[in-house]
Design a protein that fits this description.
By secondary structure, the protein is of the alpha/beta class. The protein has helices spanning 28-31, 40-46, 49-52, 77-80, 91-94, 106-112, 132-144, 157-169, 183-191, 203-217, 230-244, 261-275, 295-302, 337-346, 356-370, 376-390, 412-419, 430-439; strands at 4-9, 15-16, 34-38, 102-104, 116-121, 150-153, 173-177, 195-198, 220-221, 252-256, 284-290, 350-354, 399-404. The strands form three sheets. It has a six-stranded mixed beta sheet, sandwiched between helices. A four-stranded parallel beta sheet has the order 8-7-6-9, with helices on both faces. Strand 10, helix 12 (261-275) and strand 11 (284-290) form a beta-alpha-beta unit. Helix 7 crosses helix 8 (157-169), helix 12 packs across helix 14 and helix 15 crosses helix 16. 52% of the residues are buried. The chain binds pyridoxal-5'-phosphate (PLP) and zinc ion. Zinc ion (ZN) binds at residues 9, 11-12, 14, 24, 26-27, 32.
């Protein structure tokens, strides 16, 4: 038995019983996103600061707050369960996700104008993005439901993390990608042995085909947009951050936003740790979107989602006001905007948008001033803090955490746009090196 009590529709508030449906039967799969609710009183009895000192340093330390069955009475339980496809391994050993470092970045803080900045580097997850948290729970859920294969449609990190987790437990994995997926992410999928369908169209087309295929073949559907259990995996980012900052809270936590599920999950994790009494503080969430694709930021202001223009301008170009090169947050039709806007509002937080030029600057600064190579969507969080300081939303005296949601190695072409080319020198010509060194003095 898990401690899940019910699932609640974020649009109409209806309660749906566990196992009954993935989206609200009344509101449908587009609007009827569900939120998983737990018996927090029961969780508070065992999930204490004292108990946590002896638990594994991974997402499984929070098993009371995950939507996975635990045999009654037993606590170690989930962690001892063996994946059916790889019986020599325990789930906890196969999927070593989470407990990423939180590091001080004083020089980056000074550059972007805040008193204190800490980076939570999710580039150090096994597949090098925050999405591993969701995929691990997706795979555990699929195994629990007896699925024989799993699938998702993704522009990159959700897919590569799923391919990693599935390969780690021996579960067959099917991935639908749109055109234009960055090479690093595609290479990961193939390296992890997923069956990859490259749909020669947009993300929406890949998503639609994946949904059909899941229905037809009975594959477990890992699409975050409609599967409410995956945000529970993302929630571990907030649970963990709360624990890491328990006695030293930040004022703000900056998170880049595409579909909205990540910022919602982190907000939920922080809120649950507060509700459980593990921490006594709440931090404000700073949601950061790319200026060219900012439907969630706009919905936060207006209280409803409006269609985001997806057509390039009449001259055929795609100016900075349309689209973004940060592929992981290029999400013009977000499904989790209600959860995202709700979490940010409930935290007393704010949204900002940043242009691609600001994201590129943040990629350079994060690498040079903090030693963290962030993918564009991850660096957007850093750019967002700088922007929020400029606008007077975040005070210069604030202590801020930036979630670095993915590694720069995922998208070498994108990174190269921000960081430039090496110096070319002929072989055996120290004088050329001398000249460069002199010029740069
Ligand atoms: C997916 C992703 C995000 C945004 O998450 P959403 O749930 O889509 O809002 C941010 N950064 C990176 C690196 C991602 O992969
Ligand atoms: Zn509903």
């Amino acid at each position: 038995m898990s401690l899940v009590r019910e699932l609640v529709c974020v649009a109409c508030g209806a309660s749906v019983a566990e196992g009954q449906a993935l989206t609200c039967p009344k509101c449908g799969p587009d609007e009827g996103i569900l939120d998983v609710r737990y018996d927090l009183d029961a969780a508070a009895r065992t999930l204490t600061r004292a108990a946590m000192t002896s638990r594994p340093q991974s997402i499984w330390r929070y098993h009371e707050l995950l939507p996975l069955d635990l045999p009654a009475g037993g606590e170690e339980t989930l962690v001892d369960r063996k994946p059916p496809f790889e019986p020599s391994l325990r789930l906890i050993d196969a999927l070593r996700i989470g407990w990423t470092p939180l590091t001080e970045a004083p020089r980056l803080a000074a550059a972007i104008g805040v008193r204190r900045l800490r980076l939570k580097d999710e580039g150090r997850e096994p597949s090098a993005s925050f999405k591993d948290r969701a995929s691990a729970v997706g795979v555990a859920r699929a195994l629990q439901e007896g699925a024989k294969a799993i699938a998702c449609a993704s522009t990159g990190n959700a897919a590569s993390s799923l391919a990693h987790c599935a390969a780690a437990v021996g579960l067959p994995c099917n991935i639908f990608v749109p055109r234009g997926i960055p090479g690093g992410k595609l290479a990961q999928l193939l390296a992890y042995g997923a069956r990859v369908f490259k749909v020669l169209d947009s993300y929406a087309a890949a998503y639609a085909l994946c949904t059909q295929a899941c229905r037809k073949f009975g594959w477990y559907n890992r699409n975050c947009a409609i599967n409410p259990y995956l945000v529970e995996g993302k929630k571990t980012g907030g649970l963990e951050l709360a624990e890491q900052c328990a006695d030293d809270p930040p004022d703000w936590v900056a998170v880049s936003v595409g579909d909205g599920c990540t910022v919602a999950g982190i907000g939920k994790g922080l809120a649950e740790m507060h509700a459980l009494g593990v921490v006594s503080w709440r931090a404000r969430l700073l949601g950061v979107q790319a200026a060219g694709v900012a439907p969630v930021a706009r919905a936060f202001e207006r209280g409803r989602l409006e269609p985001w223009p997806q057509q390039p301008d009449a001259d055929g170009g795609t100016p900075d006001s349309r689209g973004t090169y940060a592929d992981s947050i290029d999400c013009p039709v977000p499904r989790n905007w209600r959860k995202a806007a709700g979490a940010v509002r409930e935290s007393g937080g704010a949204f900002v948008t940043v242009r691609d030029a600001q994201i590129q600057e943040a990629v350079r600064q994060s690498g040079r001033l903090a030693g963290v190579f962030a993918e564009p969507a991850a660096a957007a969080a850093v750019a967002g803090i700088a922007e929020a300081v400029r606008r007077g939303i975040v005070s210069r005296d604030a202590s801020v955490v930036a979630m670095i949601t993915g590694s720069g190695l995922k998208d070498i072409a994108g990174a190269t746009r921000a960081v430039g080319a090496p110096h070319e020198v002929p072989a055996a010509e120290l004088s050329a090196v001398e000249k460069l060194v002199a010029d740069q003095r």
